[in-house]
Amino acid sequence: MNRVELELYLNDTLQIAQFRDYCPNGLQVEGRSNIRKIASGVTASLAFLEAARDWGADAVLVHHGYFWKNEDARITGMKRRRLGVLIGHDINLFAYHLPLDAHPELGNNAQLGKLLGFVDDGGRFGPDQLGWLGAPAQPTTLAALAAHVEARLGRAPLMLGEPTREVRRVAWCTGGAQGFFEAAIAAGADVYISGEVSEPTQHLALESGTGYLAAGHHATERGGAKAVGEHVAARFGLEHRFFDMPNPA
C-alpha cells in the first residue's frame, strides 16, 4: 500500500490530534512509498531497526520513536546510527506515543487489560484520561495478582503493599505512569499496576493501604504496537511481524 494512505489511516485511527504529546506522532522518518512489510516493536532501538531491516521491512511501527521534547537536536552518535539504518535502507518510521496508550481497543492499556483478564468498567482517570479502571475476573489478593501478572508478562513485578490485601477494583496505566498513583487511589482502586516505580511510591502504598505493582515499562507496553501492526496488516493485506527485543526495564 502507499505510505501516505497508511499514514492517514493510522493518524485517524489513533486520533493523534486529540493529544498534546512530548514528541511528534505519525510518520517520523520518511522511507519508500510502497509498503508491503511492516515490523512493529516497543522502541526504535538500533537492535530493533537492524532486525526489521534484515527481515526486509518497508516500515516500522513503534511506541517510542524519536524527537522528544528537549532532546538534543544534533544528529550524532546513537541518533546518527539509528537514523542511518532507516535512511540508508529507505525504511519508514511510524511512532505513536500517548495515542497508542489511549486507544480503546488497540492501545497499550486496552491490550494489557485484555492480557490480564480484567473487566473494563469504563472508568478512566489521570491526565488525558489515560488511566483505566476495572476488576479482576474474580476477587483475589495482591500477592495472587502479582503471581498472575508474572505468569502473563513473563516478568516478576515489584509488589508494594500488604500481600493479603483483597483486590476487587484494579487501576492500571502502562509505562512510566507511576505519577498517576494518587489519582488511582482517589478513584477507589485496591491496586494500581504500572510499568515503573519511584521512591515516593512506597510511601503512598503504605500510607494509603493501596497495593502497587511495577510490572516493567517494556513489559506492559508490548501490546499496543503489536495490535496496531496486526490490525493494519489484516485490513490492507500487509505482512507483519512483531519484534520483542529483550529489555529488563
Write the layout of secondary structure elements.
Layout (H helix, E strand, L loop, with lengths): L2 H11 L12 E4 L7 E7 L2 H10 L3 E6 L12 H12 L3 E4 L2 H5 L5 H9 L2 E7 L5 E5 L4 E2 H12 L4 E3 L5 E2 L2 E3 L8 H6 L4 E4 L4 H10 L2 E4 L2 H4 L2 H14 L2 E4 L7
Parallel strand pairs: 2-3, 2-13, 3-4, 10-11, 11-12
Antiparallel strand pairs: 1-4, 5-6, 6-10, 7-9, 8-12
Quick synopsis:
By secondary structure, the chain is of the alpha/beta class. 37% of the residues lie in helices and 22% in strands.
Structure description:
It is a single chain. This protein has 249 residues and is an alpha/beta fold. Strand 11, helix 8 and strand 12 form a beta-alpha-beta unit. Helix 2 packs parallel to helix 3 and helix 5 packs across helix 10. The longest helix has 14 residues.
Number of DSSP strand runs = 13
Determine the strand fraction and express it as a percent band: 15-25%
- How far from one another are the termini? 35 Å
Give start-end ranges of low-pLDDT stretches.
Answer: none
Structural class: alpha/beta
Counted by DSSP, the helix tally is 10
Strand order of the largest sheet: 5-6-10-11-12-8
Name the helicity range. 25-40%
- State the order of secondary-structure elements, H for helix, E for strand: HEEHEHEHHEEEHEEEHEHEHHE
Rough shape?
A: elongated
Main sheet overview: 6 strands, mixed
Based on CA atoms alone, the radius of gyration comes out at: 19 Å
Please, what is the average pLDDT?
A: 97
